[in-house]
Amino acid sequence: MRLNVAHLALPAILMVGAVTDAQVVEVGDVPTYSFEQAYNTMGSSKASDFLGKPILVDFWGTR
Amino acid sequence: MPAAIKLQQEFGERIQVILVESQGTGYEKSVGFALKAGWLGNGAIWTSQRPFSTGSGGLPSFALLDGSGKVILKGSSNSMHGQIVDEIERMVGKPDYGDMPKSVQKVYKELNKGKIASAYSMAEKVIAKPGSKDASIVLAAAEASLVAVQGRFDSQVSSINWLAESGYPIRALETAKDLSKNVAKNDDMKMSASALIEMLEGDEFKEQMKWDKSLTKLEMAMYENKEGDPRSIKKIEELKDEAAGTPVGTRAEGLAYIAKFAR
After folding, report:
1. Is A12 touching B (CB cutoff 8 A)?
2. Smallest CA–CA separation between A7 and chain B, in Å?
3. CB of B38 closer than 8 Å to CB of B223
4. In this complex, do B69 and A62 lie within 8 Å of one another by their Cβ atoms?
5. Do residues B120 and B59 both lie within one domain?
């Protein structure tokens, strides 16, 4: 069983992984992606973690 | 964006909304902005890293992916909201098994009810006796279903470990207890689930359970109070110090950090 609670650094908000930032997706594509920094991931930080349920990726701006 | 948040609230865990700040405001400010606006606490993920681009050039846009990760719709978030809702309703409604053998469809139906051990046992039975008609097709589908069932179990164990390691021991224990019920008929899986429960009910987590309960209440107070709630921020700071060096302390540290950007 895996459990090591001693060496965590902001695990709820910091994730490690590569991001294919410039990849423009089209309908029918299966994009691969992951997040280095995200809030409320509950452990899901890459495309394969979300398989099995619909994902709505909403791009918005604060400006 | 509030429309996407509403969809997360309406459909709950059946879908995942990922909100991406795409105009370069930065992670801390965008999550701080969301905190101040009262948009956290609904299950949606927030990030400022574009997982990919829709090609909209920074204008509000979306991509809707199905359960296999395939993009099935993209465009303007504002003008296509109705289509997004229709597609989500179609996907989270009755699953489409296509031409999958009926005996294997039953495995997935059982798995979708959360009955992991039962689905595992059904898949094993189909593999042992795939029948005489289209046996190789049935066998291949059944073997794939067994991998899916094992994958669901492994992913739930990983999720419980992540929750425990990340300062959510109460939720970890609840999930472990649910898992234990759903794998009661499989000795190996049951043993793993029981070990997780035993660990989470052990001395190591006693204090963390108490802190987790307090922090969750403070978190919700923060999410609900659009002014940033100075009283809750102060209490989070105190809890951060009290629980320092533990996952709950680290979680409190993360929340206190984000709260600064909501002020």
Report:
1. yes
2. 9
3. yes
4. no
5. no
